[in-house]
Amino acid sequence: MQKEYELQTFIAENPWLLNINFETVPELPNNGIEFQIGEQNRIDLVLRDKVNHNPIIVEFKFSPFYRENIGQILEYRARVVNSFQKDNSVLFEIFKDFTQCPRLVLVVKECDSFFRVACNMSGIELFEYRNVSQVLTDPTKVMQIKDYSAAFKNSKLPLSMDRGNELEKLIYSPIKAVLSEFNKLYAWKDPRGSTGFYYNQYNYMLINRWLFSDEIISIGIYEDIFSNGKICISYFSYNKETLNRFAKFHSENSEQEAFFEWNDTWNEGTFKMLFDSNTFFENIIPIFKNELEVYIKFTENEINGA
After folding, report:
1. Residue 103's beta-bridge partner residues?
2. Distances from the Cα of 289 to the Cαs of 89, 118, 184, 189, 302, in angstroms?
3. 148 contact partners, CB below 8 Å, separation of at least 6
4. Cβ neighbours for 182, distance < 8 A, ≥ 6 positions apart
């Protein structure tokens, strides 16, 4: 039970881990954690969407969830809406008419794919975490995330309504220009919103997660939570042998420092490098061009059997 409360508190203090538009509600007791909505019911966490001001009802489920639980969740949301409409509702005082359309978010340990799709079709946002206790028991990682939250105040990519425009200007357009120069524009995939996964290592607040996503090795570019907001270029693959060959090839053809990681549990790995964010933004074209040249040369050698 203590770990459950720690996770609720952790998300309450860093709501952007779920969605960059989520914020805490300081007007509520205990910042909305364990908010009472009746004699026997309580909400694990109440957040607010800072764009449209809707209340965000966050429920934490620490046992596996499956499709049989969907009816129970929808019934719970109905009770929440009903409680908002009462004359003495503190939530109504804060959210006014927006209480008519609360968003329901589930943070679960694991779930099957059918349940995920069914939740999405029912308007329930689902986030899955893995081994989050490893973060909560590591004071260094907890502090890094808190520092990362504070750093957004001065970031060139702030958590604001302008973030999308800034991403297009600083990241998307330069990357597409380089891809076009090498006749590789097909590799571009328009960034999508969160897939609903909450990972303990990276939030993947997209710059562009997977370029060349149809290839055996894809390229990800994202902001790294645990390195003071540095930008990470990550080569990702499910094929350990191929990724190892690429790591060796890259080290022979680039002076950029990088490191290899392989996760046996998930059978996937990365070969990645970190850049100071300001340096990356100011030099994105030459940095990405150098990486793309190495990547293309490697893939051509693989095809030709070199």
Report:
1. 56
2. 56, 41, 12, 18, 20
3. 225, 226, 228, 229
4. 292, 293, 296
Q: Which of 261, 255, 248 is nearest to 298 (CA)?
A: 248
pTM of the model: 0.56
Sign of CA dihedral 232, 205, 13, 71: negative
* Three-state secondary-structure class, residue 56: strand
The secondary structure of 133-174 as a DSSP string is: HHHHT-HHHHHHHHHHHHHGGG-SS-SSTTHHHHHIIIIIHH
Give pLDDT, residue 234.
93
Mean pLDDT by 10 residues, the chain (306 residues): 71 82 88 78 84 83 67 68 66 72 80 75 76 55 62 60 72 93 91 44 52 91 74 93 96 93 90 90 94 95 77
Give me the DSSP letters along 11-54.
HHH-GGGT-TTEE--TTSGGGGEEEE-SSS-EEEEEEEETTT--
State residue 243 phi and psi, 5-degree precision.
-65, -35
Strands 206-211 and 33-36, sheet pairing = unpaired
The whole-angstrom separation of Cα 172 and Cα 193 is 15
CA distance linking residue 119 with residue 138, whole number of Å = 32
Which are the contacts of 63, defined by CB distance < 8 A and separation ≥ 6?
109
Cα–Cα distance for residue pair 71/248, rounded to 1 Å: 51
Q: Which pLDDT value is given to residue 292?
A: 96
pLDDT of residue 199: 37
* Residues shown for the chain: 306
CA-closest candidate to residue 115, choices 69, 56, 82, 149: 69
Model pLDDT, residue 239: 95
CB-based burial label for 38 (10 Å; 0-12, 13-18, 19+): exposed
